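Chain A, query sequence.
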Amino acid sequence: MLALATLSACKLNPDPDEVVAIEVILPDSGRVEVTDSYLPRARALNGSGDSVAAPVFWSSLDPAFLEVLDSATGMSLAKQVGSGRLQARVEALRSNPQTVTVLTRVDTLFANETSRDTVVAPDSTSDSLAVKATATGGEASGRRVVYVATTYPAGVSTVTFVPKDTVFTSSVGVASVQIKFVAGTLPDSVVVTATMRRPDGTPIPGSPVTFVVEFLP
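Chain A, predicted structure.
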């Protein structure tokens, strides 16, 4: 789970023990799905760069998109797709607004067409291995899908993905790749999995989707 850390507020003060900055951390790369809760983190820093045990309070600058439910913890609710800005405060010192992207909530991932393909030599490339994601409140566009291939028998051939093993869904929630035989002994089959995860790392229902590609001489 990725986090974005920003030193987002500062002031000049000759006393090194005074709070001079607020460090804000946005989990999950500043992304959350609509209807989910979101918990940012922040800490006060003194002039030496050390953490100070000072209370941090949160507010939302865009409550229609991201509503702060608890100002003391920053616990927020993603209300609609778009972006919402959160701001942390320690006494009179405020952080820069921090943007959180609210994504559509993906309901499921499934094979868009067939989950099996047969490749006959000398052709070395499969048909498209396509998945489709459906979402609440809009299309599941721009979502990351990771493909992994396992050859059978193992270790006798090399395959690769076209265009690559990580792709993003289209404007209608579809992502696809092809599997290409590169070198070695022609495999009997290749099992391909396609995985999509939520911003917090949990898998989407239906993920991973499994494809089987058979190779015939």
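The radius of gyration is 23 Å. Residues 3-103 form a domain with the Immunoglobulin-like fold (CATH 2.60.40.1080).
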